[in-house]
Design goal:
It is a single chain. The chain is of the alpha/beta class. It has two domains: about 5-125 and about 295-325, Quinone Oxidoreductase, Chain A, domain 1 (Alpha-Beta Complex); about 130-275, Rossmann fold (3-Layer(aba) Sandwich). Helix content is about 25%, strand content about 25%. The chain is built from nine helices and 15 strands. The chain has helices at about 50-55, 130-140, 155-170, 180-190, 205, 220-225, 255-260, 280-290, 310-315, and strands spanning about 5-10, 20-30, 35-45, 75-80, 90-95, 100-105, 110, 150, 170-175, 195, 210-215, 230-240, 265-270, 300-305, 325. Strands 3, 4, 5, 6, 7, 14 and 15 form a seven-stranded mixed β-sheet that branches. Strands 10-9-8-11-12-13 form a six-stranded parallel β-sheet, sandwiched between helices. Helix 9 (about 310-315) links the parallel strand 14 and strand 15 (about 325). Helix 2 (about 130-140) crosses helix 3 and helix 2 crosses helix 8 (about 280-290). The protein is globular and about 60 Å long. It binds NADP nicotinamide-adenine-dinucleotide phosphate (NAP). NADP nicotinamide-adenine-dinucleotide phosphate (NAP) binds near residues 242 and 316.
């Protein structure tokens, strides 16, 4: 049985996570039981939701315990399968965690078809963050051609796809992100019609001439308070995430409820996991747009499993330029 190197939770972060909140250890990979598959991890995802798992606060999923492997979506190759649905050397994606080997129930894995190239796309544009953008925008935001769609954390994994989907839908797109390089990506790579650098621009002033029909909110806090001033009547606010609040000791309210009355606006949160029964639809449509060049994407890759905590802390600091990923190993087949 191979040795399995893992990254585990050493301590619950108090505020902003530190590298000392994580530990690295080695255990045996174990053997798959009936209906299970042993997977060698190649790529691991780095996501804001992992911060929530490290906390004991009530949420939509069970918190990690101290010593648990950090939960993540990962892409890997099948080493051994005790289920007829998978064979050795096939590529799969699933909740495999920050580790070199994982044993998973076959039913919890998705096969990655060869046309998903590079296979790491199954962790973003053709995976969870792409699906988040697709369902959040189309099902919750319900954009109409001619609408203006404003997106926060617009250069990130979800945000880069939201803007391009809104453009495909005939909308004007306004992206908000931190720093000149990200703003350049918003315009040149993701085709945003307007881009705001919230770290250097006055967001309220930059939005003065905009009307916000749909606000796809990834961050909350001060940025959302600036956006809400430009809502139109009947606006839709899609609460995808509130990453500016994840490390705050006391999260602050992002929206003034009175404005929902004034603008007869609808604010709705959603979880991509609620749409699992429609993932094939999203994957098919996103793949067609990627293949026709209508959707671009950027990855921000950190080499080496042991560097996953650093990548995670960097992502929460806004250092990722594109989807944050960790390359764990090369494919053997
Ligand atoms: P990401 O945008 O690739 O990375 C996080 C980004 O958040 C950073 O790069 C940074 O970008 C921004 N950020 C961090 N602190 C901030 C602050 N204080 N103010 C403003 N921006 C800040 O991450 P992602 O995976 O695409 O996730 C984006 C959001 O979607 C998160 O809130 C996440 O929880 C949520 N999400 C929700 C679902 C769902 O099912 N509802 C699924 C996936 C993700 P800047 O450099 O631009 O600041």
């Amino acid at each position: 049985m191979p040795v399995n190197r893992r990254v585990t939770l050493a301590a619950r972060p108090a505020g902003f996570p530190q590298e000392s909140d994580f530990a690295c250890d080695e255990v045996s990979s174990g053997s798959p039981g009936p209906g299970e598959v042993l997977v060698r991890v190649l790529w691991a995802s780095v996501d804001p939701y992992q911060r929530g798992r490290m906390s004991e606060a009530r949420s939509y999923a069970q918190p990690l315990e101290i010593g648990d492997v950090i939960t993540s979506q990962s892409v890997g190759e099948v080493v051994e399968s005790n289920d007829p649905r998978f064979s050795p050397a096939e590529l799969v994606v699933g909740q495999l965690g920050w580790q070199e080997y994982a044993i998973a129930r076959a039913g919890a894995l998705r096969r990655i078809p060869p046309e998903v190239d590079p296979p790491s796309l199954a962790l973003h544009a053709l995976g969870a963050t792409g699906f988040t953008a697709y369902f959040g925008l189309f099902d919750v935001g319900k954009p109409r051609a001619g609408d203006t769609v404003v997106v926060s954390a617009a250069a990130g994994a979800v945000g880069q796809i939201v803007g391009q989907l809104a453009s495909i839908g005939g909308c004007r797109t306004v992206g908000i992100a931190g720093g000149p390089e990200k703003v350049r990506d918003l315009k040149e790579l993701y085709g945003y019609d307007a881009a705001i650098d919230y770290k250097n621009d006055d967001v309220v002033a930059a939005l003065r001439d905009e009307r916000v029909d749909v606000y796809f909110d990834n961050v909350g806090g001060e940025i959302s308070r600036a956006v809400q001033r430009r809502l139109t009547i009947g606006a839709r606010i899609v609460i995808c995430g509130q990453v500016s609040q994840y490390n705050a000791p006391k999260p602050e309210p992002s929206f003034h409820p009175g404005l929902l009355v004034v603008f007869r606006a609808r604010m709705e949160g959603f979880l991509v996991s609620d749409y699992v029964h429609r993932f094939d639809e999203a994957a098919r449509r996103l793949a067609a747009w990627l293949a026709s060049g209508r959707i671009n994407w950027r990855e921000d890759v950190t080499e080496g499993l042991e560097n996953a905590p650093r990548a995670f802390i960097g992502m929460l600091n806004g250092e990722n330029r594109g989807k944050a990923l960790v390359k764990v190993a090369e494919r053997t087949t």
